[in-house]
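Re: that chain you flagged

S.,

Sorry for the slow reply, it's been a week of failed gels. I finally had a moment to sit down with the sequence you sent. For the record, here it is as I used it:
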Amino acid sequence: QVLLEKLEISGKKIILPPESRKFGMIFQDFALFPHLSIEKNIAYGVKGSRREKQKRVEELLKLVSLQHLASKMPHQISGGEQQRIAVARALAPRPRLILMDEPFSNLDYKLRLQLRREIRVILKHEGVATILVTHDQVEAITFSERVLLMNKGKLVQAGTPEEIYQQPQTLWASSFVGEANHLSVEWEETSLKSPFGFLEVPAEIGKETRILMVRPEDFILVSAPDGEANGIVKTVEFSGAAQTVGVELKCGEKIQVSGSPHLLWNLEDPVKITAERYLCFNSFGDRLDGFIAK
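Prediction finished late last night. Pasting the C-alpha cells below so you have them in one place:
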C-alpha cells in the first residue's frame, strides 16, 4: 500500500497510474533524452503555454547555474552538468515528490561531494519532499533530514541523521552507519567491568548489558608507562584531516580510535584507553534505553 498525503494511490483496490502521481524521478545514469537539447529536456514534462514552459525552463536553468548550456545536447556536457539538468527536469512539472535512485554513484569522489551539497540546496529551495535511495551511509546522513534504515526489507530504525548515528537502536544499526567498536562486558557487584576499567552505570542497565558500543572518536587515547597502559598501538592510518589508530587491548580485543592527525603514534607504543561516551546493548543486540554515557 502506498499513501501520498494520506490518500491511497496504490493498494488492493486502487492503483493510480505512475504518470498521474506527479512524482519526479532522478536516475543513477541521469537518463536525459539524447535527441533533445538541454532546454527541451527540462521542458518535456511541463504543462502550459509556450511562454509558461520557457519561463519555467529559464527559472530552473538559473537555479542550477547552467543558463549557458540551454542549447547544448546531453553528450556535449559533463557528467556533473548532466546530473544537475536531470534534477532540473525532475523539478520542472512541480512534482509532489521526487524519487532519487543512487543519483551520485557514477560520479567521481570530489564531484559527488560537490553535487550532493548543491542538489540538497536546490531541493530545499523548491520545497519538494525527496526520497533518496542509497547504499552510501555518509551520503544518507549528510543529505537527509530523516533517515530510514532497512535490513533485509525490514525497517530497523527511523530518525534524524543525528539519532541514527548517535543513538542506534541495535548493534547492527551501529555498525551499518559509521564505524563502531563492540566490546564484551560483564556486571560485577556494583559496576560494569570493561576492557578499560570499571564503569558506573545504573544497576538495572548494567545487569542486562553484554556489549558496549563505542564510536572511534569517543575514545580518549594517551601515552602511558607500561605499568599503567591497557593497550598497545598496532596500526596507524593517516587520512589527512584525521588519523585512525588500531589498538590491541590487554584482554586481546582490538579497537579503532580516531583523533587528531597532529598526534604522532608509533607501532607498539603503550597507551591508556578510556571511553568518553558509550552505549549499552543486551545479549539480543538491542540498545538499553534510558542510559547514554557521556
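What I noticed first: Residues 33 and 41 are 6 Å apart (CA to CA).

Talk soon,
D.
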